[in-house]
Amino acid sequence: MTAPPIHPLRFPRDPQPRLPIRRRIKALARNWVPLVPTELFSQPMVTRSYGFRSVHFVADPDLVKTILRDTETYERPKGLKEIFEPLTDDSVLFANQEHREQLNALTANAFGMKHVRDACPRMEAETDAMTCALAEGAGRQQRLSGELSQVVQRAMTEFLFSDAHALNPTVVDEAIATFAEVTSARDILRFSSLLPKRWRINQRPPIQRFKSVVDGLIDARRAEPREGDALARLLSLGDLFDDQQIRGAVLTSYYAGRKTTALAIAWSLYLLAVDQDAQRRVREEALEGRTDFARHVVDEALRLYPPLGIMPRRAARKTKLGTTQIGRGDAVLIPVYVVHRHADLWERPDDFWPERFALKGSKPAYRYIAFGGGERYCPGAAFATQLATIAVARLVREFEFSLPDGWTPKLIFMLTIRIQGGVKLDMRRHVP
To answer: Fewer beta carbons under 10 A from the terminal one: N or C of the chain?
Structure first.
């Protein structure tokens, strides 16, 4: 483990200017990077005052564990639920402690590792179809976000419904795009409650179309039952879920899973374009039918650029977190990307070093929180990492990726962490 350091795109460390509150809120509607105090990268917890409210930024794993496990004290903000509710309805994924049994059953039954392994051949087939389509553009600069989103959607749809084309891509695209348009820092911190209301009034039709299609698939499956996919496994839990909750789980899977999985693949390819030696190692293993190192690359991409950049909570009562007094109604924020790059938690925290995940126990709980933790650990984590690993290995097997000359990427942080304008890569067919 003596590889030279590779320093990919990182978050700013310079102190952010103290803007007036109105200008600060306006800026945060475009990019949340200035929200997080830079000193948090070396401290366990930092508190800031915004008007009459305190905001507590937490990076210490023990405190993170307390927050994520005590869902009654540290609840999801009401404004966040108002934003997600039009898309997900009564999804158990957003429920509190009383729904632990349902969430555990959902994870084990519908999205368990055994079922993910069974789905690998279809993941490989979908990725191979994408590589064939991309071959026509080899030799020039590519933006892969659209192709990656579609391959993730087809793989998810196959996993859920045993038919990669069961959902019209346009219906899903419109619903997810509509939802993404109204997510901003104002809602997470509850500076404004107007946006969720405007969302319900003006943005409802695409969501309703998406729901109607999923309702039709559920009704059709009840009329003609069959086994072998996630929908069948969800329907088998009839004593725990009603149809609305099943629909909520399906809808949440698409919003939470499609974009974030595509981003994990894109970030992995970006990192491999930065580190050509690592790219060659992935290719060598892929040509031998192995994906071990590709999995480490995906894990490292999820560490450096986690799917969910921040986990917001609100204190439901006065409490004490470590040595800090927390007031009722205070915002308690876990900036995941800071935890993943904290100087006290990781060796070479800003380096691209996928070999770190070759060791057993290299992803300690509440230090590595790419998919959350506690009761709300993402049920689709196994599916997302497996699909991303397969996609990265098979794409690198077929293509050589490099960074375009003169391209200066800029980080954008809005729920997810992405590059402004998408990842741009030069790609050409690999010639053995």
So the answer is: C
